[in-house]
Amino acid sequence: MTMISIGGAVGAGLFVGSGVSIQQAGPGVLIAYALTAAIVVVVMRMLAEMSVTRPDTGAFAVYGRLAFGRWAGFASGWIYWVGWPLGMCIESIAAGQIVHGWLPALPVWLVALLMLGTVTAVNLGSVRAYGEMEFWVVWVKVAVVALFIGVGLVAVAGLLPGTPAPGTGNLLGQGGFLPMGLSGVVIATSGAMFSFSGTEIVTIAAGEAEDAAAAIRKSTRTIMWRVTVFYLGSLSVVVLLLPWNSAAVGESPFAATLDHLGVPGASTVLNVVLFAAMLSTMNSQVYASSRMLFALARDRDAPSVFARISRRGAPHTAILFTSALAALCLLLQVVHPTGAFSRLVNITGDTVYVTWIGIAAAHLVLGRRDRADGRRPLPGTGVWLFPGLTWAALLALLGLYAVMIVLQDSRADALLALGLTVAVSLTGLWLQRRRPSSDSSKRS
What we know:
Layout: H1 2-9, H2 12-25, H3 29-53, H4 59-68, H5 70-102, H6 108-124, H7 127-156, H8 169-172, H9 181-196, H10 201-205, H11 212-241, H12 247-251, H13 253-261, H14 266-298, H15 316-329, H16 331-335, H17 340-372, H18 388-406, H19 408-434
Helix pairs in contact: 1-7, 1-11, 1-14, 2-9, 3-9, 3-11, 3-17, 3-18, 4-5, 4-17, 5-6, 5-14, 5-15, 5-17, 5-19, 6-14, 6-15, 7-11, 7-14, 9-17, 11-13, 13-14, 14-15, 17-18, 17-19, 18-19
């Protein structure tokens, strides 16, 4: 389960999407990712605490329902689900761009469609097949990122032959550390949110784990420091070695860095690994989104057809519907090939904001309820300094999102995600009044 969680978080968001964030914030992208990582650490502890007590495939949709009523579970589940087909589209576009570079005759959208078909077929098989594929591909991703950071640090120290030490020239000499001001840092947190999304998949997988409590404790203890090191370490290497406003950095920061270092054949090898990494991340996205849609259908918050299970134990109708929406999103790539990727990254990041706000709010209610009933969090799962740290994370998320609505460059996407949230919340309230109770709302 630890590898599944890493697989969901280390994909196009790091290897390609981080270039968008660097263009938005300059070297200040390190602040954006550090701030986001700190929030994610707290959010993951919230999820660990709640999921150990209530392991369920519906994860935070169930927690929202228990904390605030059916409408909240409906809204959080659907917002989370919508973000994943968009994320799958992002990963498939990035993979399509790689293959298009190798075979220019193949259009990006066609390769992306083939990728979607591949991961859909894998997920229609058994859960074990999905887990085995993730385990081995994630090891490759982890090794590549670690090697990239290692080689980069050697170059930063001036110990790589033919590459002089860059000093602080790129970090401070291209308009300063914050060339786009603090507003650029705030805007970049949206991309950072998308990059870190996927770490929460471990709590969704808990519903199908043999020993959910042990798996969650182990995963949450290790996942965040690993992912944080990967992101902050690799981005530090990029902004130290290359000018942040380089066009190559915006397109593919990892490949641009290796080209700068003159590592023979590194870009080709990296692109092969990137392709596998995106396949892995899409695999996790199909898994997470289909399980959430399955849980919504089980709780009568989605059409019952999505609760059907195949003979292999997979929610096949939920998988097919999710993949179909992701394929439909590829029309944006066809209509607007130059700006589709960055737009999808920002919108998806905003849906993650909404999801995490819902998680923090639910934890405030359920955490107090559990402690009042004498149920203390198991060691290694509770949020520190509760409820103070939960409040701090919630207010930070709300504050950052409010600033994104104020800023002109991020306003449209933030308002789109907010409008979607309001729409599904109102729908949930309508359903709650129509059918005020259900079996799932009686879970303890």
